[in-house]
Amino acid sequence: MRKIPYLLITALITLLLSGCSLEPPSWAKTGGKKDLNHVKLGLSMSTLNNPFFVYLKDMVVQEADKQGFEVIVVDAQNDPAKQNNDVDDLLQKGVNALLINPTDSSAISAAVQNANAIGIPVITIDRSADKGEVASLIASDNVGGGKMAAQYIIDSLGEGAVVAELEGIPGTSAARERGEGFHSLADSKLNVVVKQAAAFDRTKGLNVMENLLQANPNIQAVFAQNDEMALGAVEAVASSGKNIVVIGFDGSADALRAIKEGKLSATIAQQFDLIGQKAVQTAADILRGKPVEKYVPVAIKLVTKDNQ
Q1: What pLDDT, in 10s, does the model give residues 264-295?
Q2: How far lies 73's CA from each of 99, 179, 209, in Å?
Q3: Secretion signal: which residues (predicted)?
Q4: CATH number of the domain at 40-139+272-297, out of 3.40.50.2300, 1.25.10.10, 3.30.930.10, 1.10.12.10?
Q5: Closest to 82 in 3D by CA, of 110, 120, 51
Q6: Do 112 and 88 form a contact (C-beta atoms < 8 A)?
């Protein structure tokens, strides 16, 4: 009989022990309902270096305060590996439910599955997770918003207009869905000559747009998949001296101000307050044992200078 090396046995024991380190709370083990007077929510944000997500975080905390819930907030800083570690830390701290705004919809799947393994419900906000059991996704209609952006450009410039697209972080569901909605109309009605990722970041949006304008001097319009990139694009357009339609996505305070000042053409506005409120309310329903919808859509709207 072959003997198993001592070091291998030790490694296997360590692995098994580490895999059992996340214990479900007593209410989850027994199938009981959580005492809603002592609820602890874990909120993992993709980044707090974006005004949209800062406001979304504030709305979650505000609604949690109304419900009498404690919220532990962590910032992944747009790092998928850090976010997975953050979520594991939240589980170790004994949160009763997880609210996750994924940095990467695929990478977050491991953390979601860790929560599933110990019976902690997961709600995703604004972006989905590719794998694992998510109790509910609270998000705007990103596909519809992308299509709305394409229609705005058509209405403003007519069919065949030369367009550039600034894409977000490729691994996020929001980037995929906004792009999908945009191209569902733009591919047949507009001339999208170039698209490039700028990571939902204002500075990157500025730098990418400067390069795109040099390579494609005939650009007439830009669809940026979020307001931060749109505001960066606006700076690049202003420096070029060109008259280019720029539309963003989010409805952030900075974007609305830029629209009012005539710098940004339009934005597809999300209702941050409702997203945050519905996320906490959904968590409360789950902990009460009530059924919840797998997808809770939140309405969006086109905002221009004329309808602010």
Answers
A1: 999 999 998 999 999 999 999 999 999 999 99
A2: 10, 29, 33
A3: none
A4: 3.40.50.2300
A5: 110
A6: no
